[in-house]
Each structure stands twice: as structure tokens, then as C-alpha cells.
Amino acid sequence: MKLGVCYYPEHWPQADWADDARRMAQMGLTWVRIGEFAWSRIEPEPRRFDWDWLDRAVETLAAAGLTIVMCTPTATPPKWLVDAHPDMLAVDAQGRPRGFGSRRHYCFSSEDYRAECARITQAVAARYGRHRAVGAWQTDNEYGCHDTTISYSRNAARRFRTWLAQRYQSIEALNRAWGAVFWSQEYRAFEEIDPPNLTVTEANPSHRLDYNRFASDEVAGFNRLQTDILRRLSPGRDITHNFMGFYTEFDHFAVARDLDVASWDSYPLGFLEQFWFSDAEKLAYLRQGHPDIAAFHHDLYRGCGRGRWWVMEQQPGPVNWARFNPAPLPGVVRTWSWEAFAHGAEVVSYFRWRQAPFGQEQLHAGLNRPDRVEDQGGGEARQVAREIEALGPLAPCRRAPVALVFSYEADWHLKIQPQGHGFDGLRLAFEFYEALRRRGLDVDILPPDADFTGYGLVVCPTLPMLQTATLEALQASGAVVLFGPRTGSRTPEGHIPAELPPGPLQAGLAIKVTRVESLRPGAGPAVAFEGRTFAARLWRETLETALAPRASFTDGGAAWVAQGRLNYLATWPQPELLDAVIETLAREAGVPLTDLAQGVRLRRRDGVTFAFNFAPEPRATPAPPGMGYLMGGEVLPPGGLAAWRQT
Ligand code: GAL
User: Fold this and answer.
1) Is the overall model pTM greater than 0.85, yes or no?
2) How remote is the CA of residue 56 from the centroid of ligand 1, in Å?
3) What atom of ligand 1 comes closest to residue 145's alpha carbon?
4) Which residue, of 24, 43, 221, 447, is most buried by count of CB atoms within 10 Å of its CB?
């Protein structure tokens, strides 16, 4: 467990670097990430490199004993490069190029830009790849940030056609897969196909799905271009990329396959404010963060990194980019850091060392204020460093008792055909996750092609394109499995399966979905389960089945059925219904649950149980009586934590 910080030597006078480095080390930080936006300083003019300043920065940080995460600077191509290759800009859905003057102004499909990226990656890696202080690499910065995965440029169109030709081999196969006879959309050649934008009404859903898949593959290919170079020129160093939370436009599992370590950027207060949470939740968790937002991503990126993951950017104070930007409660930056370690992080790195007095992020806090005085976050980082020392090392997280399966492709499909306002695959997955965490469960988040051996309970909130191989792996695992609505509702091409949904799942669960409907808030029947009724929400399927329902819609029809260990929900469950379902299934799976007060969460690592309180009021620590605490005590203050060793 190590701490780090993001640092921009190019923002500060050289005379200050040594003091900054000394203070970082003295704060207990051991990693420092540099360089991800520094291209215009590294190569001020085409092919004229200025290494001098960066050499000195590297030496200064190294001299203080810090280990460096060196970044490729490809998220911010300089002006001269854009002017030389105007075609490298991404193009938005309205056909407008996205201009210079902020960042991420490039299209993943520009071959000119890919060549430039290979060139600068090669140059930076040749210079620092074997430097004793360079311990890891970060490729680019937050792929996809600011809506930059999907581009409608000419380059993207051209490469999309090649991608389609490889995938389908013949135009007839593509026409069949897309159902292109519908509305006379048939093509005679791959060259005729355009990206699915600027159509009069919605574009063909299979066309759109393939465009998502193509765009995701473009990100993976772009990243691989860099990792191949880094592996060659910087042997033995870990390579990571800092992924962005609540962002699904490319497949993070796929990109992470080329990395040694997954990392993500955790801004608990910014995310709470920016996403779908109710006003009541936004107020209740205003300064502590939502109980499950950071944890969900910790568990997701542990899955992406096959066990190895970092927080590359940890919120240190108020940010500048959400609708409202409150300050964290005193102590919460410390709690977030420990939450990450409890979920298995190897490193927590704060963004950023010092608040910048210029540029777009002037109002974004750092560990230090612009006047060089340590800010609240700095003091808390210092405290975490001391506590890590006191606690000693913890082994990586073991397999959790429960897995949650998340599919990026499912999310793309549901964005294309939500069928009801608010049917969002990520949100559905998040709500299942919340239900598991409310009962104190440790959760692994895995892709559909994972190995499920050893899990007691596996939940698949929705897998529209369920593959037979996934079903077989789930059955072979012996786990109790819960499938959410719309599972098995589409073939890989995006068609309704010939045997009707849930498609291949019918091999294990004798149901047929004969009708679906989406419901506006307040409409719809209730769901009856064990003498209680729960309002149905958003989605209702009509099942044809001889199986006895476990829960039913009050106006008739099964809402929850099971056959053997396989369970299926025919609605988007309200939290209370989901709690009841999880409680029942965990009991059947022999997975122990814990009763937790509202806002309290648990996570276990290497025999230590951590408890976190995200509620705005103090809570009793849910530890067995007479526990010797490693951190905290019997009362968890708002935004506080406790830890004890489980005997
Ligand atoms: C991240 C990004 C950083 C910085 C930060 C501000 O999205 O990677 O460069 O902009 O947000 O919170």
C-alpha cells in the first residue's frame, strides 16, 4: 500500500522543484506521476526535443527517493501538430471538428495521429524507459473523457468500413446481420457504408452497435500501439491507464488486457453530483460521497486489472467540474484512501500536488494551496502514510463470495434501444451492486467471459447478448445465479432470438418472454413476494412458463422464476424488492449477510475488516463486541472509518 501524487513540474518554477519533491517524500508519498500533458514542452517544435527540463525534473524527484509514473503525453497534442494534420481532429455527431484549446482533441482513427503518438511514445520511452526512478507508465490520460471515444471523422468512416469487411467478409452477410432490408437500407459494397449519424430518424440499431464495437476496438488498438513500444523500451515496468468512472463507451476489460495494472480516477463528490442520484442522496452524502460509488469502481477496476489496480487520481478537496463542488468533510480524504486500500488498491495517488493558479482547473483543490501552504487533503495524506506504516502490509484481496457480471456491450445495446426512458444498463448494474453492499457483501465485478469457479452467488443485472459459453461457465461454477431483465433478449447481431428471449438461457431455465413493456413512473402493477408487495418499476416482461413463480405481478404473471440454481427477474426491481431477492438467494447460496445501518459499508482484506460510514450522522461500528481496533473505535463519525482484525 503506497501513496502517490500527480505533479506538473512544467507548471512551477524550477527553483521550487527540489522543495516540492522533499515535501512529497516527507508527507509519506512514494510515487509521483508526471508528463501526461507536457507534449508542447517536450517537443516545442516538430522534431525539436527539449529534454533538459524533464531530465532535471526526473533527477530532482529521483533524488528525493520518489518513484515516477511516466506518462505518454498523447492526450494533449500541441498546436503545431494539429495544424500539420487538421484531419486528426475528432468530428462530433453534427459533423463538426472538435477544436484545439482544451485537451483530447484527436480521433482514435487518425493514422497520422497514431504515427505521431508512436513517435512521441518511442522518444519518451527511449529517453526514460530504463531510468532507475521510472517504475511505471501511464498511457495517455482518461480515454474517452469529454465524449471523445466516438468520432464521425472521415478517418473513422474509412477504418469502420475495413473493420466491417473483416468482421462480415461479404456485404450479403452484413446486410443479413443488420437486417438491412428493413427500410431499404441494403448496401452493395462496404465502401457505401457511412457512420450511423445525421440520419433522419434513429439509425439501424445493428449498425449503431457495430459502430460502438468498432470505436471500442479503436481505443484498444490505439492503446496497444503505445504498450507495445513501452514494453520494448522499458522492460520490467508496469503499464497502466487511468480509466474514468461511470464511463462505458469503450470496453475497459478489453483495453485493460494490454495493461499490467488497471487504474481509475476517483472523484467521489464530483461523481455523486454529476450522475443520476436523487436530490435527497446528493444532500445526504454531500461531503462524504455516496456509499457505493467509489467502491463500485474499485471492484470494477480490480476486475479489469485481474487483481492489480490503483487509484491514479484521488479527489483531495473541492473539484471544479461538477454542477456544484462542495468541500469534503474533514477526514474524508483519509477515509476514501483507506476505502481504496480495503478494496485492494496497490497505490492511491492524489490529484494534484498543488492547486494551479492558471488554466482551466484553477478552482480544483490540490494537496497544497496555490500559495504553497499545505491544504486539508495534504494533512490527511500524511496521516494515511503514518497509518499504513502502523498497520503493515496487507495481502491482495481474495476472491469475494459474490460476483457481479458487467458487460459494456450490454450497456451499448441498451443505450441504443432503451425502450423505456431511463433503462440504463450501468445504472441497473449499480443498483444490484448497492443491494449486495447494503448487506455487507464483498463483491468482484467481472466480464461475461470470466471464470466463475468458487463464487457462491453470481448476479448478472442484465446480459442481453448472453452467450452459451457464459451460461455454461455459470452453470459449471455451481453458484446460485440471478439474471436481471432483458437477459438473452438479443443475438450478437442485435436480433430478437428465433426462440424468443431469453435466448440461450432457455437451455437452463424453461421460460419464454412473449412480451415486454416499459412503464412510466407511478404506472404498473406491484410485485408480490412472501406476503409483501413492492411497486414495479419501469419494465415488465410477460413470461410463458410452467415453472412456479417465486414472485408474481399482482395483476398476474411471474415476476421472478427459478429452475435449479438459475433465477430470472422479469422487471427492474425496486431497491426493497432487490433486497428481498438478494437476502433469499444469499441464504440459498450459503453466503453470510450482515445487517448494516444505513450508510455503513464493509470491506475485508487479508483478515482485516474495514467499516466506513457515509451517513451524515454517527453510526455504531458493526464489529463484534470487545474488538481491538486497528483504526477507529466503536463510533463511526460521518465520513469516518474503523478497522479490526477478524479472528
Ligand atoms: C481527471 C483528469 C485530470 C484532471 C482531473 C480533475 O478527469 O484526468 O487531468 O482534469 O480530472 O478532477
Assistant:
1) yes
2) 25
3) 7
4) 24
